[in-house]
Design brief:
With 258 residues, the protein is α/β, with parallel strands linked by helices. It is 41% helix and 15% strand. It has one domain: Rossmann fold, CATH 3.40.50. It starts with 8 loop residues before the first strand and ends in an 18-residue tail after the last strand. The mean pLDDT is 94.
C-alpha cells in the first residue's frame, strides 16, 4: 500500500511523538501531504520531509480547528483526510479527578476534535471531494476500566461523535470512523509493565495476543481507513487492541485448569 494515499492532503494531530508520529510517517510513505499539528515541534526526521507541513498549536485553544484547516488549504486545498489523534490521559479514579482535570480531559479529548471535525467537514463539503475522518478513541472507551474516570468517558463520547458524523455526512462522501487502541508499547508503558504486576495482569495476561501493540500497527489501521480500500466503511469503531476489549473469560495458564 505504498501509494495508497498518493497526493492526498492529510491532517494528523499529535504528530510529533508516539502514535501520531507513526501515522504521519506512514502517511508520508504512502504518498500523502501531511499537515502535522502538535503543541511540540516535530522531530527533524519529520520536519525536513518535503511533503510535511508543521503547525505548532494548542488544539484546545479557541479557533485552533479553523487554523489547522487553513494551514491545510495553504498546502494545496481542503483536507481530504483528518486524523484526530491528539489526546491526554492518566490513571485516576473519580475521587481524584477534580473539576479542573475533568475540564482538561473534555477540552483536549472531545472539544478539540469536535472543533476540528466541524472545520474539516465544512471545508470538505465546500470542496465536494468527500473525505475520511478518523478519530482516535480507546479500548477504554468501549469497556469499563479502573482508574480512568476522566479519560474513558471522553473517549466514549468521541465514539458517539464518530457515529453521529458518519450518519450525518455520508451523503457528502465523507466517511467517519474511529480506531480504539489498547495498550501500545512506549517507554512509559514498558516501565509500568515492569513495575506493576496488576497492570501487567490486566493488560497483557488478559489480552488474547498476549503482548502490547506497536504504534505502527495503529498507523496501519488508520491508513486503511483513510484509503480507498475502505471506500464502503463508515461509522465503524475498529479496536486495535489484540482482542483485549472482547476478552471476558481468558483460558487458564498451562497447568492451572481443572
Amino acid at each position: 500500500m505504498s501509494g495508497a494515499l498518493e497526493g492526498r492532503r492529510a491532517i494528523v494531530t499529535g504528530s510529533s511523538a508516539g502514535i501520531g508520529l507513526a501515522i504521519a510517517r506512514l502517511f508520508l510513505d504512502s504518498g500523502a501531504v501531511v499537515i502535522g499539528a502538535d503543541r511540540e515541534p516535530p522531530p527533524d526526521s519529520l520536519a525536513t520531509h518535503p511533503r510535511f507541513r508543521a503547525l505548532v498549536a494548542d488544539l484546545a485553544a479557541p479557533g485552533a480547528g479553523e487554523a489547522v484547516v487553513e494551514a491545510c488549504r495553504a498546502a494545496g486545498g481542503a483536507p481530504q483526510v483528518l486524523v484526530n489523534n491528539a489526546g491526554i490521559g492518566d490513571a485516576r479514579p473519580i475521587l481524584e479527578t477534580d473539576d479542573a482535570a475533568l475540564q482538561r480531559y473534555l477540552s483536549v479529548n472531545l472539544a478539540a476534535p469536535f472543533a476540528l471535525c466541524r472545520a474539516a467537514i465544512r471545508a470538505m463539503v465546500a470542496a465536494g471531494e468527500g473525505g475520511s475522518i478518523i478519530n482516535m478513541a480507546s479500548a477504554f472507551g468501549l469497556v469499563g476500566a479502573a482508574r480512568s474516570s476522566g479519560y474513558a468517558p471522553t473517549k466514549a463520547a468521541l465514539i458517539g461523535l464518530t457515529l453521529q458524523l458518519a450518519t450525518e455526512y455520508g451523503r457528502h462522501g465523507i466517511r467517519v470512523n474511529a480506531v480504539a487502541p489498547g495498550l501500545i508499547e512506549t517507554a512509559l508503558t514498558r516501565e509500568r509493565l515492569a513495575g506493576n504486576a496488576w497492570f501487567r495482569r490486566m493488560m497483557i495476561e488478559n489480552c488474547p495476543l498476549g503482548r502490547p501493540g506497536r504504534a505502527e500497527e495503529v498507523a496501519r489501521a488508520c491508513r486503511f481507513l483513510a484509503s480507498d480500500e475502505a471506500a464502503f466503511v463508515t461509522g465503524v469503531v475498529l479496536p486495535v487492541d489484540g482482542g483485549w476489549s472482547s476478552a471476558k473469560f481468558m483460558p487458564e495458564p498451562a497447568g492451572e485448569g481443572a
